[in-house]
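To whoever picks this up:

The nightly regression suite flagged Cardiolipin synthase A as changed. Nothing in the input moved, so I suspect the structure step. Input below, exactly as stored in the fixture:
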Amino acid sequence: MGFSSPTRHRLRLLSFAVLAHLLGAYSSLDALMSTRTSQGTIAWIVSLNTFPYIAVPAYWVFGRDRFQGYVISRRDDDSNLAITMAPKLHELWSHQFEPPEENSQLSAVERLAKLPFLAHNRAELLIDGEAAFDSIFEGIRTAERYLLVQFYIVRDDQLGRKLHDHLVERAQAGVEVYFLYDEIGSYQLPSSYVQSLREAGVEVHHFHSTRGLRNRFQLNFRNHRKIVVADGERAWMGGMNVGDEYLGINMDLGPWRDTHLKLEGPAALALQMVFVEDWYWATEQIPDLDWQPAPQNSHKTLPVLILPSGPADRFETASLMMQQAIQSAQQRIWIASPYFVPDEGVLNTLKLAALRGVDVRILIPEVPDNPLLYYAAYAFIGPLLDAGVEVFRYQNGFLHGKAFLVDHHGAGVGTVNLDNRSFRLNFEVTAIVLDADFAAEVEAMFIQDFTLSRRMLMEDLENLSLRHRVFSRGAYLFAPVL
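Regenerated output under the current build:
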């Protein structure tokens, strides 16, 4: 005797519900064993068991924070990449900068980077898009042997087409050109843009963040690095992608404030090594490049550490780097970031630094490009203000630069934001420069930005509307999984 049609329908719904909750329970176990933060684990377990119909697919697309299969040649010993790169890495270590005794704490960030501070470099601070891309395009035009180009976002607009034309010209002139982009960040890049580069002889690949069985359904991992290397001698890195907004042409958010860096010397080869690791993941190929460092012989050369970080690391490298910078500060630590959703470790070290008398300043934008992160930041600001941290909101457009200044001798420029995505989900890179003159340039940049900002007061938080406070606390709950 068969079931009636309504009964069969109810049985199918019941079976679906049971299956969804079983998958929710299984996914909860995976989250318990693999999610890095306790807050993130709790958030996922609650949602997976309460709303499994939505949370289960969301978890398997966005939930994991370990990137499986990526080979780091500075760490792994038995891969083809590691074996090939071992002598190049050894050559880099021969240019190691030996810090004075009072800076012995720098060994911690060297161990995180699996690279040393390298001596005999020059560094040029590039403020905003015009200065940065004028320098980058000049470097591309003068490259004689090869170019390595990597960006998170590449747009087919005025700036994107200018980059395209420069790469085509160099490829047709016989220069080997390798171009890597993130397929999620550059999802709007048309296939015609890529195809015309290939037809001109440019080697083009996307990062392929879903490669590998365990990464197959993940959309949460991004390669957020921006790297250009010319002939292994000159390199550029920092906050800027390739799009008209980075030149201030797209005015939806007002003028675009960003920071980039040009490096010459052995540090360029350290950035080259980071690119090769990413290229190898995308293509399983190792480009034939020059690895003999070109030390700068000017009267003053700078020690520079290139610190890559990402979800394939054994430790939470970016977060630990920031905590080390904050803990090492004796007089001041100034930090600029477009997004401010710090983890508990960074939040506590900021408070402690302020409580022990360090001048702690955080520079974030007034104008948001991500409403959820904008509201979440308010949940962190109150306790920091209470501890003595000064928070400034940049008024003159959108602040996108990522930089920090430690005392009067150390500064960092890179791609890391103060949020969970940069700390645990993105592939990032930071350059740390030890030099009083360079630090003075970064100080002048910060001071100019502070003059274009408003300092937040506790009254600003007390006068927020109820709607704003509710949105802020709601966004804060999602901070561990943003």
